[in-house]
Amino acid sequence: MAQQQTTNYYVPAQSYWPIVGAIGLxxxxxxAGTTVQQIGSEASSGSWMLTIGIVIIIAMMFGWFNDVIVxxxxxLYSAQMDRxxxxxxxxxxxxxxxxxxxxxxxxxxxxxxxIPWLGGASxxxxxxxxxxxxFEAVWPLxxxxxxxxxxxxxxxxxxxxxxxxxxxxxxTLHIAHKGLxxxxxxxxxxxxAITVLLGVAFLVLQxxxxxxxxxxxxxxxxxxVYGNTFFLLTGFHGMHVTIGTIMLFVMLWRVLKGHFTPExxxxxxxxxxxxxxxxxxxLGLFFFVYIL
Amino acid sequence: xxxASATQDEHEIEHDHKPKGLMRWVLTTNHKDIGSLYxxxxxxxxxxxxxxxxxxxxxLYQPGLQIVEPNFFNQMTTxxxxxxxxxxxxxxxxxxxxxxxxxxxxxxxxxxxxxNNWSFWILPMAFSILxxxxxxEGGGPNFGWTFYAPLSTTYSPDSTALFVFAVHIxxxxxxxxxxxxxxxxxxxxxxxxxxxKMPLFVWTWLxxxxxxxxxxxxxxxxxxxxxxxxxxxxxxxxxxxxGDPVLFQHIFWFFGHPEVYIMILPSFGIISAxxxxxxxxxxxxxxxxxxATASIALLSFLVWxxxxxxxxxPVAAELFFMYCTMLISVPTGVKVFNWVAxxxxxxxxxxxxxxxxxxxxxLFTIGGFSGLMLAITPVDFQYHxxxxxxxxxxxxxxxxxxxxxxxxxxxxxxxxTGHMYDERLGKMHFWASVISVNVxxxxxxxxxxxxxxxxxPDYALQFADFNQLVSIGGFAFGLSQLIFLVVLxxxxxGGKKAPAKPWEGSxxxxxxxxxxxxxxxxxxxxxxx
Lengths: 292, 529
What we know:
The complex is a heterodimer of chains A (292) and B (529). Chain A is mainly alpha-helical. Chain A is built from nine helices and no strands. Chain B has helices at residues 2-16, 22-27, 31-59, 70-105, 113-132, 160-187, 200-231, 245-262, 265-279, 286-299, 315-343, 352-375, 377-383, 387-417, 423-449, 464-493. The two termini of chain B are 27 Å apart. Chains A and B meet through helix 2, helix 4 and helix 8 of A and helix 1, helix 5, helix 6, helix 7 and helix 8 of B.
């Protein structure tokens, strides 16, 4: 017991960053809401507020994380604090998993229930006959009940390339992590840089795919429920890859500045977890959105 | 190690005195300050949401349209629900969690104190947006707090975009707060505080926080789809594009049903602390309480479609959801049994917290029984969307969740403020509340069984008498809460000095601390017996 008395608790000092973050979110929420309301009009006050909000949040992240890094370098953090950070990040990733789960749930519901029912399955024979007698219940839904048509995205080509890219990037990141743990900075820097490049490559190809979909395939966000699920799932995933790539880039920058030791590298660890999570989500997407 | 702890000691001393002025509250990383902020915010929202309920009851005092426009009436029912769920009940529980969990498990503070501050200050931002939207062109949200499609997509006001983003940041706040609670409980328990030694309030909050992290993102996804359906031409909830309005209900209630337990599980923890204290007995069946809480949480993921029995699901699905729903009454019954068994042959006294706790057991059980009635699919076809449903969920939320929050306030006020509250006023508050709340909600059962629909500003003549009675009960309940406000203010400003342990039978680490509890809870791990 006496020994435990020495494991003192650490309570961080007050900080300006949380309130700055709350104000940033206020701007983002009002800005985003107003931007959406102003679609199709000349007004641009919404997008201005949204931009200000995003800038505030980015500034908050730099400031907040900088404080944490400084405090950590001073040796203020105990092993317990480190565990709190790690557990916090794991639960955050779990919440992200549930966010994607909701969209996957929507996709599965539409494919296995909504569309067959529109076609007259289950106890819905009359729905099919009275509302849209010509409707064909198939997936991908290239013709909506209302008659809008689109084209389905195949899985070969860009999506397959992107799968390979992301899977490779997870491996390179893992090797970079191993390099960090072995204190092999060269290996760490090189493989982390490759991971960042792979992340960027993924985003470029994804953008290419969207351009292709919009220009040549008639596959748009509003192209019926196939386009809806396609763009929301891949879009939110792409957003997460963007954030993950930025995080990886910041890690690379910190590695070049000589941050992290084999024992203490929470930020690197968290980024790596996040990246692997994004990778796993992509595998789900590749199977259920593209292939099946 | 030694040098590290020396710097930490200096750090402690440096921050042990309370910072002064307004900025103390804006910048605070202290779990007690943040707990107080949450509780004060939730009380403010309770009054705002209550005022909206008064508008609703005033309009329904007589048949016909007297006071407000139907569209404004709809905004009142919607925002009343949103405020009470997300602004009053949930933040009140988070406030209690902040105040109590570190003290109960022997921790110095929450695990992530700065994030704690952030998750609080997001809330006032979110609710300012929500309330401001009421004053915008076209009005605020008017589609019910459940914002069913197509009400929230095709037929909603233009301010829906703001509603969506307000819900988004509110969800961020809840998720961050819940992550903090889980990490605190898992990682910050004092040596020797094993899981099965934790007070039930901590247990129930651990499970609640897990539910929050699991379902708040689903709510975020739901509002996102509403946003794209309304503004970006998607058709998740429109059959013409291959979607389905019923899909909305599935996703919403996949969030919504666990959400219901998020608002009641911490109550179970509170009641499990108060009943033994005033019965002067140990809680009967501690471990069965833990397992019951966990099974309720697990089952809460399998019952969402009992809100949707009339949407035309296949019979097999209706049966599945009916049986799962009824199954929940087993662990809930275990809890009620355990509370009653705790009181059995105890030496009971009836201070205000105990009165509220006993009222909770009786009235929450009534709410549970009406829930059981609603769970039976064939009869739900009659009850669905009637005042019977309104009666049911107000019994579980007002006389359930809110009564337990009030019980908790009375029980822990001496620890928070260092003063005893005014027992005479407390008892007055209790009796005024418990009588008026039954006048308010009990006749709603009859109205519902007789067929009065929910969310209507006008009704058929035969419902007039009961509605008048309900309104009178409503006004009385609203006024009774002003007594509570007076008790709280009086207790914060002064009163009889409270000893460290004002309640003879209470147990837990928080009662070993002086009253008021010191600014920093445990600077070194306490000894756990």
